[in-house]
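Write out the 3D structure for:
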Amino acid sequence: MDRRRFMMGATVAVAGTAVAVTGTPPFDDIPEAAAAAEERFTHRGRKVVIQKVGKNAHAVVNGRHGVHLEQMNGGYATHLLPFATYKAPRKAVEAVIEAEDAGLLIV
């Protein structure tokens, strides 16, 4: 088992434990106003939905992959591309998709 598979498995296990303990799925408490402010677009053949929640944003790629974005230093950053910030969540998600296409990461 490689490190990437281990980390993905550990992440799923932690999220599952959190749901089991609290009884509520993550992002279930999104206010209706925030849920209405979602951005939808297609980039390189992938359908993306971005929801802004406070200073954070959550992007879903092709209905199954989640990308967490956090507002910092006047832009948005993601742990997938830790050394860059982007002016808008859309630009950050586009950069993540392009990095995946280049073989740098798996979304």
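Residues 38-102 form a domain with the protein ne1242 fold fold (CATH 3.30.1880.10).
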